[in-house]
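Input record (one chain):
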Amino acid sequence: MTTFADSSAIVKRYADEEHADLVRDVGVLVVSQLALVEVPAALWRKSRVGELSPEHARTLTTALDVDVAGGALVVVAMTDGIVARAADLAATHPLRAYDAVQLATAIAVRDADPSCTTFACFDVQLRRAAAHEGFRPLT
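The corresponding structure, as predicted from the sequence alone:
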């Protein structure tokens, strides 16, 4: 079984947040290329608001890079097809632009690998849209 994870889930892999154990228990996660910007941005935001020290944020962003290089996070590149699908999804579901890209990427992964049936995310609207598109939530 393949699990796709949006950025809200990937952040939990590194930062101590509620439900982090769920994400950390999954071995390999498939992620959108978009996460390579969203996750560090979220970790540095945590540093700016005092939830993480700058040193800890740097350590966690380095861990993200190591996981990508080592294959623990499989990155799916943005394509014209994913962007077009995201635009269609935004018309169908009440999603923010980047959330539509995340879901479109998950659908592209499932099209290539039908075992990708689990969608790890902690955003309510995106989770509902993913369920409507046939994904099971990570629980």
